[in-house]
Every structure is written in structure tokens, then in C-alpha cells.
Design a protein that fits this description.
Layout lengths: L4 E4 L5 H7 L6 H6 L4 E5 L5 H4 L2 H10 L3 E11 L9 H10 L4 E7 L7 H11 L2 E5 L8 H14 L3 E6 L2 H4 L4 H8 L3 E6 L1 E5 L2 E5 L7 H7 L7 E3 L8 H14 L1
Parallel strand pairs: 1-2, 1-10, 2-3, 3-4, 4-5, 5-6, 6-7, 7-10
Antiparallel strand pairs: 8-9
């Protein structure tokens, strides 16, 4: 199976990406490593880079890389209303020719707001995926309620399943996979190791075999994103190794 493998740009580390010249400078690394695409992180842009999204879109095409666009924003604000920033984020994703925009869920409470979301998505033509984050909003019950509401409303919104984030909210990733697998269209792959009073992300092959079992419980044909530290003197070689590992598993 030739599944798509994305590299989350933050996996190379914010400081290293910045020193290299920003996310656009990492495209040759992703391409040389055999990745299919890259997850562009909005929080890693400065103002000048954010103004040059069309140039980044051209560079992605030149390197034959797909893109997804991740923004550190909730879909729903604390009062349950839709985040008014979403149309602008969808426009940015469209400028990048991104396959989808990824956000966190936030405080979902009212299915009636989904009619407005449907209008926003139809106007943009960009797919939306919602990720389980490391807050209470990313726990299983709210993710289930939101997914069920999307099904009832026939809203074309799916989930990013972050394998490690469940541990940050004291939830079982295996239990989450049993309930959410039908709604998952993208997987953030990482393992987590205890650190201080919480966890830290580590490469999956440094975290036992749990990650392999978890992947088997999730859709096999959806893209997988490398969201664990990629470190070493030869970033291309390190990235290539994990691109191959995730494609084969």
C-alpha cells in the first residue's frame, strides 16, 4: 500500500527550522527523504512569511510536495460560538493549495452552529480536519459528540487522530481508536515517554510496540504525519528513515 506520509515541519524543531530559513527551506529535506507532503504550521511563520504564502505554494509544487495546513486555533470558542478566524484560515489554506486545514475542536456545544460551518467550507472548497489536542476539549466524549453531530448533519468534516495527545489528557488511545476510527482521515504518529509530571513526544520506535498496535486499529489507507522529534546531523537521512518506517507499517 502506497500510503501518503507527511512530515510535520515542527518535527525538525522550531529553532532548527528558523535557522535554516523557515519552513520553505525545509521542503528540499522532505522531498529528498521521500515524503509525500509536509504539514505547514502557521505558528512557525513570522509576519513576512505569512505574507508570502503564494511563494510557498509555488515552492511546494516545484518540490512535488502535497501540503496540509495546521493552525493553532480552536474551531469553537469558549462560549460555544464558531471561531470567526476560520474563514481567514481557510483562505490561507486555499492559497497554499493545501489538501486540508487542521484545527483543534475547542468548546463544541451546539449542532446548530454547523450550518454556518457548512457555508464557510462550501465557500472555501477546503477540507477541514479536527484534531484531539492536549486540553479537556480533546478528550474522547467531546470528540465523539462532534463526530456524531457531523454524521447526522452530513457535514464533510473528519478527524486527525493524534496518537500521543490522548495520554496528555489521561485517556486511552486504544479506547479512542475503537470509537473514532471511522471518522479518522489523518493520523499524527508519535509515541510518548513520561517526562517531569507529564509526557514528551518521542520517535515511535523508542516507545515500544504500542504504536504499531494502535496503527492497526486505525484506517490503513489514510495519510500519516511524522510528529515526533527528527534530530541528527543529517536531517534528510533521519527523515528518510522514518518516512520509510511509517509507510511500511
Amino acid at each position: 500500500m502506497n500510503r501518503k506520509i507527511f512530515v510535520v515541519s515542527a518535527a525538525w524543531g522550531h529553532d532548527r527550522v528558523r535557522a535554516a530559513g523557515g519552513q520553505i527551506a525545509m521542503l528540499p529535506v522532505a522531498a529528498a527523504a521521500g515524503a509525500d507532503g509536509i504539514e505547514i504550521r502557521r505558528e512557525m511563520f513570522n509576519e513576512q512569511e505569512l505574507a508570502r504564502l503564494p511563494a510557498l505554494a509555488v515552492a511546494l509544487a516545484e518540490h512535488h510536495l502535497l501540503a496540509c495546513y495546521s493552525a493553532p486555533e480552536p474551531l469553537f470558542l469558549a462560549d460555544g460560538t464558531l471561531n470567526p478566524a476560520l474563514p481567514g484560515l481557510l483562505d490561507e489554506a486555499q492559497t497554499l493549495n493545501a489538501l486540508w486545514l487542521k484545527v483543534s475542536l475547542g468548546h463544541f456545544s451546539d449542532a446548530q452552529t454547523l450550518d454556518v460551518l457548512r457555508e464557510w467550507l462550501a465557500a472555501s472548497g477546503v477540507r477541514l480536519v479536527v484534531e484531539n489536542d492536549q486540553t479537556s476539549c480533546g478528550q474522547l466524549p467531546p470528540m465523539q459528540r462532534f463526530s456524531a453531530a457531523c454524521q447526522v448533519q452530513r457535514l464533510p468534516v473528519t478527524l486527525t487522530f493524534d496518537m500521543g495527545n490522548w495520554l496528555w489528557v489521561d485517556a486511552s488511545p486504544e479506547n479512542a481508536a475503537r470509537h473514532l476510527a471511522p471518522f479518522v482521515s489523518y493520523i499524527h504518529v508519535k509515541a510518548a515517554a513520561p517526562h517531569d509530571h507529564g509526557y514528551r513526544a518521542v520517535p515511535p520506535d523508542q516507545g515500544g510496540t504500542r504504536w504499531r498496535d494502535l496503527l492497526r486499529a486505525l484506517p490503513a489507507d489514510v495519510p500519516r504525519g511524522i510528529e515526533f522529534p527528527l534530530e541528527g546531523d543529517d536531517l534528510t537521512a533521519v527523515t528518510r528513515r522514518y518516512v520509510a518506517l511509517l509507510r511500511e507499517e
